[in-house]
TrEMBL record:
This is HEPN domain-containing protein. It comes from the Bacteria. Gene3D superfamilies: Nucleotidyltransferases domain 2.
């Protein structure tokens, strides 16, 4: 990655990869008519909301908070172009966060299967 536009894109793609992994992994998420991303995070971070999921609610809450952190970073990278400079380090952090997120989902799914 050689420029700020590429770094912004990396943050956005890292978030969307996490979002789509989450949507593919959840079994009972409601069909929201608006604010899909915010509602998904709320669903994951509220144990009473996600009680039908076959996963540990504490881990779900943690994953929801991780998703929110990268959603916030993605919103800044995508919509606050004049206000915020995005660095290579920020993009690398987003990618590392996504990789960790995937490993947490893998462990969560393995625990469910056993």
């Amino acid at each position: 990655m050689a420029d700020e536009a590429s770094w912004r894109s990396a943050i956005s793609r890292a978030y969307y990869s996490m979002y789509h992994e989450t949507m593919a992994s959840l079994t009972c998420v409601p069909k929201y008519s608006s604010n899909h991303h915010g509602n998904l995070i709320g669903y994951m971070t509220t144990p009473a909301e996600c009680k039908g999921e076959p996963y540990d609610s504490r881990t779900m809450r943690l994953l929801g908070y991780n998703l929110k952190q990268l959603r916030d970073a993605r919103n800044e990278a995508d919509y606050h172009i004049a206000d915020i400079s995005v660095s290579k380090e920020m993009a690398e952090t987003a990618i590392a966060s996504a990789e960790l997120y995937f490993s947490k989902w893998t462990a969560l799914k393995s625990a469910k299967a056993s």
